[in-house]
From TrEMBL:
Record-stated family: Belongs to the MoeA family.
Pathway(s) of this molecule: Cofactor biosynthesis; molybdopterin biosynthesis
GO biological process, one term: Mo-molybdopterin cofactor biosynthetic process
Domain annotation MoaB/Mog: ranges: 179-316
Record protein name field: Molybdopterin molybdenumtransferase
One term under GO cellular component: cytosol
Organism: Pseudothauera lacus
Magnesium recorded as keyword: yes
Length: 401
């Protein structure tokens, strides 16, 4: 059996070669920037922390003043976070709180658990090293240094870092506009009764959630009408104002639906058979200026091809520098003795021991497997796996957002 399968790498390379990265930039409030892609490198206007400050509640001292544990020093001042004290006179200590600026002359903080306060004096029961419990100005970020590179996805840590140096707004690329359509006469929406032969349209929910998690602006066209002229009309409308048209279903060899001829009539279409499992058939082309990707209808095939093909395409279109997911090398706690000639993406789960188990049903319609799993094992074509072998594991954390 030879049906001229395209290798996974070739298919992905072809998809990525067609990417036209977004150029339009918007300035958004840092508070609303989560999930967006940074358009230009940001540099820190200040040092972080701005001043030397205390890392503990305790006493700021000159370390040289404490020759031995039990030294008593007069407490000359009290410095709370948000205030700046005066220079520390030799032979004195300053009461200080976490985050408060270290007074000039002090070079260490002794945490209060190692001191006892008596009236105006403090007894210091520990000889601190120079710099002990002191956070140096600029030790996190020096003023002027690059804070975040262009093309980074702004998640909680990135927006927090931008806020920490006072950036109130950030330049981001506009969101990718994606039109979503499903094909299939059997599809029924949850909430409607299920007729004989009908199935609920789970791919609509799957793909919408995945697109939202990637920060796309998704227009949902629902189910494509079952006539050629209506399908062409829907595609034309979708091509206006969208960067990508994404469909589910109708990409295999069946003759039932009109998406393939409609895309061919309105643009161009290549039907690929990719050496991957699940997810062999994939349609790629364009409708006018919009890119077109047709995913296979089988729910797990839709899921996997989205994660390993569409996701990198979307991220690269959004200008994300790191579009390839980080893989982990983990030991298999399973046997895989019937390898396929296609590259396989198995639904798998890292267990408490840090090894990997497989879901027992790996069929392209077994949607349960995707919920049980917390990642995918990426198996090269024709590879048997024995318990204890090292496998490539793609964690959901790298794929679902
Ligand atoms: N003779 C051949 N038949 C098939 C081949 C092949 O090479 N030769 N490839 C198989 C593979 S692999 C896949 S994957 C599917 C792809 O089929 P389509 O993309 O054409 O999708 P449909 O036929 O419309 O549906 C397949 C399957 O998925 C269910 N489905 C479709 N849409 C949804 C949805 N929105 N939500 C939930 N489930 C959906 C549909 O009911 C079918 O069960 O083709 C194989 N056949
Ligand atoms: O490979 Mo299909 O994509 O089996 O389900």
């Amino acid at each position: 059996m030879n049906d001229n399968l395209l290798s996974f790498d070739d298919a992905l390379a072809r998809l990525l070669a067609a990417v036209r990265p977004l150029r339009e930039i918007e300035l958004v409030d840092t508070l609303a920037a989560g999930g967006r892609v940074l358009a230009s490198a940001q540099h820190s206007p200040i040092s972080l922390p701005p001043l030397d400050n205390a890392a503990m509640d305790g006493y700021a001292v000159r370390s040289a003043d404490i020759a031995a544990p039990g030294t008593e020093l007069p407490v000359s001042q009290r410095i709370a976070a948000g205030s700046v004290g005066s220079a520390l006179q030799p032979g004195t200590a300053a009461r200080i709180f976490t985050g408060a600026a270290l007074p000039a002359g002090a070079d260490a903080v002794v945490m209060q658990e190692r001191c006892s306060h008596h009236g105006e004096h403090v007894r210091v029961d520990h000889c601190p090293a120079v710099g002990e419990h002191v956070r140096r100005a600029g030790e996190d970020i020096a003023a002027g240094r690059q804070l975040l590179p262009a093309g980074v996805r702004l998640r909680a840590p990135e927006v927090a870092l931008a806020a920490a140096v006072g950036l109130a707004q950030l330049p981001v690329l506009r969101r990718l506009r994606v039109a979503l359509m499903c094909t299939g006469n059997e599809l029924v929406m949850p909430g409607d009764p299920l007729p004989p032969g009908g199935i609920y349209n789970s791919n609509r929910f799957l793909l919408r959630s995945l697109l939202n998690a990637l920060g796309c602006e998704c227009t949902d066209f629902g189910i494509v009408p079952d006539r050629l002229d209506a399908t062409r009309e829907a595609l034309r409308r979708a091509a206006e104002g969208h960067d990508l048209i994404l469909t589910s279903g109708g990409v295999s060899v069946g003759e039932e639906d009109h998406v393939k001829p409609a895309v061919e009539a309105e643009g161009a279409l290549a039907l690929w058979k990719i050496a991957m499992k699940p997810g062999k058939p994939l349609a790629f082309g364009n409708v006018h200026a919009a890119a077109f990707i047709g995913l296979p209808g089988n729910p797990v095939s839709s899921f996997v091809t989205f994660l390993v093909m569409v996701r990198p395409f979307i991220l690269a279109s959004q200008g994300v520098a790191e579009a390839v997911p980080q893989r982990l090398r983990l030991h298999a706690d399973f046997e895989w003795t019937r390898p396929d000639r296609r590259r396989e993406f198995l639904r798998a789960r890292v267990n408490a021991e840090g090894t990997v188990n497989l879901f027992d049903r790996q069929g392209a319609a077994a949607l349960q497997s995707t919920v049980w799993a917390n990642g995918l094992v990426d198996v090269a074509p024709g590879t048997e796996i024995r318990r204890g072998d090292v496998v490539d594991f793609l964690p959901y954390g790298e794929l679902l957002g």
